[in-house]
Structure to design on (1130 residues):
C-alpha cells in the first residue's frame, strides 16, 4: 500500500485520545430510509433536461445528459452481487457529516458484497491525481463514525478540470480495480464530478462517478436537493453561540454584539441562525443587492434600530452579518471591480508595481471614476487603504480581509454621534465583535446530519450497484422521520446551466441564493421589526444527541419552512 | 410593587419564545447532597483564622471574625420554622448557573416555610441601593430553572462599599421585612458581602448576609471552596469550540489558529481547556511571570514549535492564549506602569492633555526609561501607538484593547521570516484568530453546574435558617456523585488577607492563580511537549444533558486532578 509521508491519518488514529462524547457517540447507528434497509430496485423516471441552456449542456455532456431521475424502492430480490471497489474523495471546505457519508458508503459497498473495497484519496482531489490513497478498512471506519471533520482522509481544493488529471486518475483507478468514484463536494466539485463522469463515459473507461451534496453554506440546493449536508450542524452550532451571546447581552444590557457568520456567496447561514435565535438585526446580502442599498443605507438601517432601542433604555442588541455582505452592495461591488482593473497592467495582465503605499493610493485615486472615488472616500480611512493596498497573488483586492463586523459598527458609531449632536439620539453604544466559521465546520454531526450523510453515502453505493454515472446521491422528504425519507439519484446535468466564469462560458450547477419570495425569508421579514424592538431572543443551546426527539432530531427552520409550502 | 421602568424581565418572560432544549431542560430536577434532602442540623467546627494578617482582619471584622466552619448533617427533627423573607443579588459578570442558585434558594426558603418570600434586586447591587426590585414567585422561577444567563433580575458592577449604600439598603430591606441577603458574586463581591454582614451585625440591624462563589475565571477557590460556579460550563463550551477548530485544523492542515480565552487575572480557563483538548501550545500567564519571560521569549517558544512541526510537513496547529497574558510579562507590566505614570499630570492627578497623537508619542518616548523605551520599540508599530494613545477615562493604558492573539501571531510570523532567511525554517505560516468569552458566560449550565448551583442556593437557605451571617455557602466533594456532596458554610473572613489596592490596604479574599506546583499544571507540563509535536487533539463536543453519566456528569479536569492529590 502506498502512503504519502506528509499525511498520517492511519498512524494518527491509533493514538487518538477520545472524548467521552466521541466514545458514546460511536455506538450511534444512523437511521436509513426504509427503502434502503434491504435490497432495492431502481425506479426510473422520464428523461430530464438541464435547468438552462439545454442545447449547450447537451452538447457538452452527450453521454450523461438527459438521464432519468432514479428513485429506489424496496425489492424482494436478494441475489448476491459481485464485489466492487470504490474510491472516495473529500473536496473543498469541511462540513459536519463527511465521515458519515464515508461510513454509509463503506457499509453500503460491503452489503453489496463483503469482498468489496473502499479506497480514500488523501487530501482531496489532488490525492487522485498524485496517487495518494489508503484503503479504508472496518477498523478505520469505526474510529470515525458520527464524528466531525474530514480528517479520516483529509480534504483539499485542487480542481479536477483537466484531461491530464483525468488520465492520471484513471491510472490509479485501474491499478486498484476501482469501478466507481464518489466525490463529496459543493457545487463546483459536483460540476467537476460530472465533467469527469462524462470524460470516463466518453472514453469507455468503465469508471462511474457519483456526487454528494456538501457545503455548510447551504447554497447547493434546488428542486432535487433539499439541503446540502453540514448546513444543519453548522447553523445549530453558530446558533448555540449566538443564543449564549444574546443571553449575556440581555443580562448585562450594555453591549451591541456584531456577529459575522461564514458564507461568502449566500446568506442562508445568517438567515437560518436568525430564524433560530431571533436577533435584533440580521442583514441578508441578497436583499441588500436586490434593493440596491448603499453602505450608507445599511448603516442607517442599523443605527435607526439602535436609536429606537436606546429611546426605551435598551442600549444593547445583536446584529447578524453574512460574511459576503460587502460584495453584495452594488456600489462597493462596482468599486472593487474598478480597483481590480486599475491595479492590473493591461499590457501584461500582471499586478502593477508601485514604489510604495502612498504612490499606489495616489495612483488609485487619480485613476478610478468619480463615483467610485466618492464611495472609497466614504469608507473609514484604514479600510480604504486596505482596499487599495492588499492584493492577492493574482492582483485582486482581498475582500475577505475586510472585517465587515467592525467596519459596520464603526460607521454606525459615527452616525449615532452625528445624531447625538443633532439631538436625535441619546444613548450609549458599546460594541463587541465576533466571527463564527471554523467553530462549526467540523462539529460532530447532529442526528439530522449523521442520518442524512450516512443515507447519502449508503445510497451512493446503490447508485453504483445500479451502474449509474454522472448522478448525484439524493435523499428527500427529510423533515419527516428518517424511515420515510426518499432515496435516489439525479443526473447532475439536470442542475446545470451556462455561466460566465473568469471570462469564459462554463457549464455549472446554479448556486442557490436566498430567495426573497421564499418562505424562510418571508417569515423572517414578517417578524424582524418585532424582533428589533421587543428583545425576542431564543436560546437554542448546544446540539443534543441523546435527548427527546423534539430536541435532537429536528431539521433546520429553513427546511421546515420550505417544506411547509 | 415597585418596578423600575428601564428593566422589563417580568414583562419579557411572558413573551419568551423557548427553544426545544429549554422546554425539555426545564423539567430537570437538579441533584442535592443527601444531607440537604431533608431537615438538617448544623455541625460547628472550631473557631477559624483568616489566611493572613489575622490581627488586622480580626480588628476590621469584630462581629464576623473567628466563626466556626459549618457542616450540615441530616436531622430527624421536622419542626416547622417561621417564614423568612430573603433578598438576592447577582453581582458582576455572568456565569452559567446563576438562575439555578436562585431557584435552589427559592425552593430552600419555601421548604423552610411556604409563606417565605424571595425578592430579587434588579441589575446588581445597585438595585439594593436604588430600591429597584421584584418579588420572585414560583411562576417566574419556573421560567428560569436550568437556564443560562442572569436575565431573571439582571446583574451589575456597582460596588457595595460605602456606609451610605448600606444605609440605603437597610431601608428597603426593612420595608420588605427581609431578614437575609444572598449575594452571588466573585472574590470582590464576596469581600463586600462580608463587609456588609459585619456592618449590619455591628449596627444590630438583624439582617444576615450570605455569599455564593461565582466566576467563570475559576480564580475564586481555596482550601474551603473547590470551585466557583460557571467555570465548568464555560470551559466546556470553549473546549467544544476549540475541539471543533482543531478538527478543522487537522482536516485542512493549512492554518495555525491563535485562540484567546477570557480570564484577565488567572489562566485557569486556558489551562482547563488545554487539559480537555490537548492543543499544540497553551500559554499560562503565571508561568510566564514566574520565569520572567519576555515577549521575545514567548514568541520564540511558539515559533520553535511551529518550525519543528513544519519540518515534519505539519504547517498547522493551535495556540491557546489567556486573555491577561500581556500583563503578566514582567517587562510589559513595567512599561505599562511607567506609561500610566508619565501620561498623568502629577500636579492634578488628571490625564495629561496633548495637542495631537504625534506630540503625545514624542512626549512618551522622551520621558520613559531607556529599557521601557526599548520594550515599546520592540512591539509592532500599531500596538506601540495603541499603548501610547488609547487611555481609559482615568488616563490608564487600555491593555484589554490589545488583541494579544494577533500581536503574537504577527510577531511569530516575523520571527519565522527571519529564520527562513537564515535557512533555519522552511514552511508555510497562515493564521486564523479567535477570542472566546461571551460565547460561554451565559451558556445553559452543565449538569455539574446545574446541580452545584442549585445546591449552593438551597444550602444558602439552610445557613439563613441557622441564623448565620458573613458566611459563604459551600458545597464540597463534588467529584463524587451529588448525593455524597458535603454542604455547609465557611466564614468569609477565613479566606481574607490584607492587600494593597489603589494605594490603600484593604481586606480582600485572596485570588487563586494557577499554582505551578499544582496537579493540573504539572499534568499539563508533563504532556505539552508531546502535544506540541504529535497532534494529540481531543474533540470534547457540545455539553450533553440527557446522555450517559460519563458524558453528562463529569466535573472539570482541573478539579479531578486537584482532588486526586
Amino acid at each position: 500500500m502506498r502512503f504519502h509521508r506528509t499525511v498520517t491519518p492511519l498512524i494518527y488514529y491509533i493514538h487518538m485520545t477520545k472524548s467521552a462524547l466521541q466514545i458514546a457517540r460511536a455506538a450511534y447507528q444512523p437511521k436509513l430510509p426504509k427503502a434502503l434497509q434491504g435490497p432495492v430496485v431502481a425506479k426510473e423516471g422520464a428523461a430530464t433536461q438541464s435547468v438552462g441552456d439545454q442545447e449547450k449542456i447537451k452538447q457538452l455532456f452527450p453521454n450523461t445528459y438527459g438521464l432519468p431521475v432514479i428513485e429506489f424502492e424496496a425489492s424482494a430480490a436478494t441475489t448476491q452481487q459481485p464485489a466492487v471497489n470504490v474510491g472516495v474523495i473529500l473536496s473543498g471546505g469541511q462540513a459536519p457529516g463527511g465521515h458519515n457519508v464515508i461510513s454509509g458508503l463503506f457499509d453500503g459497498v460491503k452489503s453489496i458484497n463483503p469482498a468489496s473495497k473502499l479506497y480514500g484519496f488523501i487530501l482531496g482531489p489532488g490525492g487522485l491525481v498524485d496517487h495518494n490513497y489508503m484503503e479504508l478498512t472496518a477498523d478505520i471506519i469505526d474510529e470515525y463514525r458520527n464524528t466531525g471533520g474530514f480528517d479520516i482522509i483529509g480534504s483539499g481544493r485542487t480542481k479536477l478540470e483537466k484531461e491530464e488529471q483525468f488520465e492520471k486518475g484513471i491510472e490509479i483507478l485501474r491499478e486498484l480495480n476501482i469501478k466507481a468514484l464518489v466525490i463529496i463536494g459543493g457545487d463546483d466539485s459536483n460540476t467537476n464530478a460530472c465533467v469527469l463522469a462524462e470524460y470516463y463515459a466518453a472514453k469507455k473507461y468503465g469508471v462511474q462517478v457519483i456526487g454528494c451534496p456538501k457545503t455548510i453554506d447551504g447554497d447547493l440546493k434546488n428542486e432535487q436537493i433539499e439541503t446540502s449536508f453540514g448546513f444543519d450542524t453548522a447553523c445549530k452550532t453558530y446558533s448555540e453561540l449566538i443564543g449564549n451571546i444574546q443571553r449575556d447581552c440581555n443580562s448585562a444590557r450594555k453591549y451591541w454584539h456584531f456577529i459575522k457568520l461564514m458564507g461568502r456567496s449566500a446568506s442562508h447561514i445568517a438567515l437560518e441562525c436568525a430564524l433560530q435565535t431571533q436577533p435584533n438585526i440580521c442583514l441578508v446580502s441578497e436583499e441588500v443587492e436586490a434593493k440596491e442599498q448603499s453602505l450608507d443605507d445599511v448603516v442607517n438601517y442599523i443605527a435607526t434600530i439602535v436609536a429606537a432601542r436606546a429611546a426605551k433604555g435598551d442600549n444593547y442588541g445583536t446584529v447578524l452579518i453574512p460574511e459576503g455582505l460587502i460584495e453584495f452592495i452594488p456600489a462597493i461591488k462596482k468599486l472593487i471591480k474598478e480597483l481590480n482593473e486599475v491595479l492590473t497592467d493591461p499590457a501584461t495582465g500582471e499586478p502593477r508595481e508601485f514604489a510604495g503605499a502612498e504612490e499606489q493610493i495616489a495612483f488609485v485615486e487619480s485613476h478610478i471614476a468619480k463615483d467610485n472615488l466618492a464611495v472609497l472616500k466614504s469608507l473609514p480611512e484604514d479600510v480604504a487603504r486596505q482596499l487599495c493596498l492588499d492584493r492577492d497573488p493574482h492582483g485582486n483586492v482581498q475582500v475577505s480581509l475586510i472585517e465587515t463586523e467592525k467596519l459596520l459598527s464603526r460607521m454606525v458609531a459615527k452616525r449615532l454621534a452625528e445624531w447625538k449632536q443633532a439631538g436625535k439620539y441619546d444613548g450609549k453604544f458599546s460594541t463587541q465583535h465576533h466571527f463564527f466559521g471554523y467553530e462549526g465546520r467540523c462539529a460532530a454531526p447532529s442526528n439530522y446530519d449523521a442520518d442524512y450523510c450516512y443515507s447519502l453515502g449508503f445510497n451512493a453505493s446503490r447508485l453504483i450497484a445500479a451502474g449509474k454515472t454522472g448522478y448525484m446521491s439524493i435523499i428527500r422528504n427529510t423533515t419527516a422521520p428518517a424511515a420515510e425519507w426518499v432515496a435516489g439519484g439525479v443526473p447532475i446535468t439536470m442542475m446545470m446551466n451556462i455561466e460566465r466564469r473568469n471570462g469564459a462560458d462554463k457549464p455549472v450547477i446554479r448556486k442557490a441564493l436566498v430567495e426573497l419570495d421564499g418562505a424562510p425569508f418571508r417569515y423572517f421579514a414578517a417578524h424582524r421589526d418585532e424582533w428589533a424592538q421587543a428583545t425576542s431572543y431564543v436560546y437554542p443551546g448546544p446540539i443534543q444527541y441523546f435527548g427527546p426527539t423534539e430536541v435532537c432530531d429536528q431539521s433546520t427552520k429553513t427546511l421546515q419552512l420550505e417544506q411547509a409550502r
Q: What stands out?
A: Confidence is low (pLDDT under 50) at residues 1-14 of chain B.
